[in-house]
Amino acid sequence: MNLNFGITVPNFGDYCGSARNLGELADEAEKAKWDGFFVFDHILYSGGERVPLVDPWIALAVIAMNTKRMKIGPLVTPIARRRPWKLARETTSIDHLSNGRLVLGVGLGDPPDVDFESFAEDPEDRIRGEKLDEGLQVLTGLWRGEPFNYNGKYYKLRNVIFAPPPLQSPRIPVWIAGRWPKKKPFVRASQWDGVFPLGLARGSSLSPDEIKAVASFIKNRRGNSHPFDIVVSSGATGQVDDNKTLEAYADAGATWWLQDMRKWCNSSEELKKTNSQRTA
């Protein structure tokens, strides 16, 4: 089975809302032979309760210091609510801190009412999509470590040089999130290094047949043989699927299987139990 296996954890909850706890969990995950450890990027908890949250980039710094092998990164960061030059500095810093293990997962951001409207930010999909595309151009321009100018609709830079550039070459890998079967996010993803396809319903994942359709769509768009990741999540239920199911996803074109841990974000014992299942 040609799949990488990772954990994706929320940046909120009594347990996961702590950078220290996430760093310890990442250490345990690496010892349990997981291939990747990815963190949600939310600024508020969508349920409305007073729930602890941690900044994902602070958490990723701790995770980088507590691991040596796994891929790490945010999944996903909404560029529309971040200054792309600040994000360029954060991503480069984490890339160096992790010795070149960062993957940048990006998307429009969800839910828009909580993470955007609450702060008088425009929640409209079109606006967030335009900012995402411009933000990615700014990021990749700054990552080159050379004089960079940009004159976009939302962002403007004049003769800016960022040093040092990331360790990874030609750049930090970028995965694009999108809800299938909406096509625009997948057109965008075909221009980058990977896609994180989600179902239309919040917290839902796709079937192997849907992943096969995604893989076909991307292949027709890319027209080359460069490596490309298709990332499948277990969804909000956190169900651990059997080998037959995982093989079906791999055969459909998936390259990563992520175990979604939001169901257990308030329980350290359940999180550790999942790590031990991976070791067994």
Describe the protein's architecture and organization.
The protein is an alpha/beta fold. It has one domain (4-279): TIM Barrel, CATH 3.20.20.30. The chain has nine helices and eleven strands. The chain has helices spanning 19-31, 56-66, 84-97, 112-115, 125-143, 184-189, 208-222, 243-252, 268-279, and strands spanning 4-9, 36-39, 71-74, 77-78, 104-107, 148-151, 156-160, 174-179, 194-198, 229-233, 256-260. The strands form two sheets. It has a nine-stranded parallel β-sheet. Strand 4, helix 3 (84-97) and strand 5 form a beta-alpha-beta unit. Helix 1 (19-31) packs parallel to helix 2 (56-66). The longest helix is centred in the middle third of the chain and has 19 residues, at 125-143. It is globular, with a radius of gyration of 18 Å. The model has no long low-confidence stretch (mean pLDDT 91).
Strand content: 15-25%
CATH architecture: Alpha-Beta Barrel
CATH topology-level name: TIM Barrel
Helix content: 25-40%
Fourth-level CATH superfamily? Luciferase-like domain
**Total separate domains:** 1
* Low-confidence runs of at least 5 consecutive residues: none
User: What structural class is derived from the secondary structure elements?
Assistant: alpha/beta
What is the top-level CATH class?
Alpha Beta
**Count the strands?**
11
Give the overall shape, derived from the CA principal axes.
globular
* Cα-to-Cα separation, first versus last residue: 17 Å
Radius of gyration, in Å, reads: 18 Å
Summed up, the helix count is 9
Oligomer: single chain
How would a crystallographer describe the biggest sheet? 9 strands, parallel
